[in-house]
UniProtKB/TrEMBL annotation:
Transmembrane segments: 52-70, 82-99, 119-143, 164-186
Protein name (record): DUF420 domain-containing protein
Keyword DNA damage: no
Upper lineage: Archaea, Methanobacteriati, Methanobacteriota, Stenosarchaea group, Halobacteria
Top-rank taxon, per record: Archaea
Keywords: Membrane, Transmembrane, Transmembrane helix
């Protein structure tokens, strides 16, 4: 009980710690700064990850939307279950993405230069920005809900933070699917 009370009193600090740690891991993987020599490199798995992550992204969009609908209808437990599922999908996506990018490096766009400049890069930059921005909102929403009884959540800033987190998450996942389509199906 003392641990949950401590966590409840330190949600902003835990949010900052988890956000910084998560984002540091993402940037270290993207910049290929992680020691990955011992990681297995099965080509078929590495090449399947983008397709699996697109499916995970679609599933996450579905669970986020269903979670928003559930809380609007007053179904708190269903909302909680769906948002935890969304976070689990996000974590699975991130682990797979980090593994692939740490081993293979970032993907390069193979389409025409004008598409790369005026479509791909702007979508990618907004996607990355929103993905970075949503991390602390998601952690805060999860930590604030996970450390309080349901009655206290309604009087907290969790509902506002949760709305921001859900919106950022949805747009980021959607733009990620656009990037996937451009990289693997259009070009």
């Amino acid at each position: 009980m003392a641990d949950s009370r401590w966590a409840k009193e330190h949600v902003p600090a835990l949010t900052a710690l988890l956000s910084v740690g998560s984002l540091a891991l993402v940037f270290a993987a993207a910049l290929q700064l992680l020691p990955v020599g011992a990681l297995p490199r099965p080509t078929s798995v590495l090449h399947a990850i983008p397709h699996l992550n697109a499916a995970i992204s679609l599933a996450a969009i579905g669970t986020i939307l269903a979670g928003v609908r559930a809380i609007r209808a007053g179904h708190v437990e269903r909302h909680r279950t769906l948002m935890l599922a969304s976070f689990g999908l996000f974590a699975a996506f991130l682990l797979l993405y980090l593994y692939r990018v740490a081993v293979l490096g970032p993907n390069t766009f193979g389409g025409p230069e004008w598409i790369r400049t005026f479509v791909y890069f702007p979508v990618l930059l907004v996607h990355i920005g929103l993905a970075i921005l949503c991390v602390p909102f998601v952690f805060y929403a999860l930590l604030s809900a996970g450390t309080r009884p349901i009655e206290e959540i309604y009087g907290s800033i969790h509902p506002r933070v949760g709305r921001v987190a859900a919106a950022l998450w949805l747009v980021s996942f959607s733009m990620g699917i656009v990037i996937y389509l451009l990289l693997y199906h259009v070009y």
